[in-house]
Sequence to fold (109 residues):
Amino acid sequence: MTRLTARFWVDAYLARLRFQDIPAFVVSHGDDTAGSVLVKLNTLDGQARAFTRSFDLMSGERVWAELASGTEAGVDDSIAKQRGFDPDLWVIEVEDRSGRHLLDQEGLA
Fold:
């Protein structure tokens, strides 16, 4: 199975969010080809959640797992630690008061 480049996936994800009128932007531009992607959901009330792609060991499928949740500052600290481990990491920030991130939709894992 051919894997999409990180840049292609990010561009497609941002387009899907735009179609739903959900503001999002690139906070950190990772490696275009093989960078990992982290998505921060900012609910604009001082709270946030961060998601990272991982593998479900039971099914073998790629899934989005919650990396951190809580105050926005706390989530930002977790993201900063991840960026320290992985300089090729993409960070996408999604801003939605309703908590929509679309990561649970088919085709985004």
Observations:
- The domain at 26-95 is CATH 3.40.1530.20 (hypothetical protein tt1805).
- The mean pLDDT is 92.
- The radius of gyration is 13 Å.
- The first strand starts at residue 24 and ends at 28.
